[in-house]
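During the practical work, I worked with a single protein chain and the tokens that describe its fold, as given directly below.
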Amino acid sequence: MAATFATFRDPVSRTFKRVKVGPSWIMMFFSAFFGIPLFYRGFSRVGTLMLGLCLSCILLLAAFIGWAAGLDYVSNEDGGVILAFSIAITLLYTGLTVLSLASGVLANKWTAVKYYKNGWKIIDAGSEPDKVKKIKMAWSLPDDAFDDTFAGLRANASYPGMK
């Protein structure tokens, strides 16, 4: 099954950008690497949260390794510290995984809403009612997000300024 894309047009600069309807696999799998794809798309708040989680995981793991390297043997008194480190690392990695999956599922919707709020219009969905319905269901955009003056354009064609 082919992916559905919506082409947005900026009324000021007249540039085009395509956004996929559905999850972003790049964001899902690679946003856990210090939030780099999130910063690239302009989601600095979520990117900062992801960066903080990544750095917290690294620092906590380094602290645990440094603490454990100073031990000659593990005694019963050290069990509580080991358990606390294990729980903290597990919770941080769980938060990192959940945020990574959520950003993958929601990134394209966030991008579409950001374009809409900045005045961009969807130009290639006017002639396909199923596509309009799918876009409205996925992104919850109002009717004025669609520009019918470009209804004759093909969805997979390349236009000047398209990125």
